[in-house]
Amino acid sequence: MITFKQFAKKLLTVSVVQIEPTRRCNFNCLHCNHKDNTGNLNIEVYKSLLAKHRRCKVVKLQGLGEPLLHPDIQLLIDIASEAGHKVMIITNGSCKYVNNVDCYVFSLETMDSTVFEAIGKVNLPRVIENIRYAASKQKIAINCVQCSGNTPEDVNAVKQFAKEIGADIWITPQEVWVDPSHQEYAVQVADTKLAWQKHGIDPGYRKYKACTWGISEFYYDYTGAGHPCCIRMTDEYRNAKQGQHVCQRCPL
After folding, report:
1. How is residue 249 annotated by DSSP?
2. pLDDT tens by residue, 157-211
3. 251 contacts: CB under 8 Å, gap ≥ 6
4. Phi and psi at residue 176, in whole multiples of 5°?
5. 20's torsion region: left (phi>0), alpha (psi -120 to 50) or beta?
6. CA 251, CA 145: separation in Å to the nearest integer?
7. Per-domain residue ranges for the chain?
8. How far is CA 221 from each of CA 33, 136, 153, 177, 227, rounded to the nearest angstrom?
9. CATH for 15-171+218-237?
10. Residue 200: which residues within 8 A CB-CB, separation 6 or more?
11. N or C: which end of the chain has fewer CB within 10 A?
């Protein structure tokens, strides 16, 4: 268990504000909770969120949509950077490289085009080309989700690719993105269980020993509305508070 001293240190040293630039996405990943495909973050709303969190260390531009599809994504990055924040982006790799990102992360689950398309993505060669280009410009990371649509062999292939281009590799187990009251909860639980079995993940695995959402980590969608955490991103969780209704059986 995490000690109180460790927990206090985390609160004092980690401050992340995650903001969704857009709800639009050009992929349809089976392990993602993305549904609708409209809506971009207003620049003035964005500025007001940053003003609310002036002391945050990291602005994470990520949500249910592909962040680089925001028409003014470079402006969003530059505004945060000029305000003294580190900028982090997690992208599906389909879009061209953008500048001034401190932590540039690509989502990639396989090096096999057939598996890539079965997961709900398209044009793997272009994605690989974009990742290679970014790696030639700066240090990057690759986030590989252990999902029901890929295999341990796919994950190992991504690991080898990351090593080849000098990228960090993050291995992330598939997660349940809704709480038990949601109509898709049973389906997501079953699919996630399948993913964990395929990849040999311990059923007792937890990403965090202590939750700091709403304390030193915050999430806002493209409308500027707050959410209880980064895995309760759909509209029914707007302005919801942490608690049993949305937090019970949290996979994190």
Report:
1. T
2. 999 999 999 999 999 999 988 888 888 889 999 999 999 999 999 988 877 777 8
3. 175, 176, 192, 206, 207, 231
4. -90, 115
5. beta
6. 14
7. 15-171+218-237
8. 14, 32, 35, 15, 7
9. 3.20.20.70
10. 152
11. N
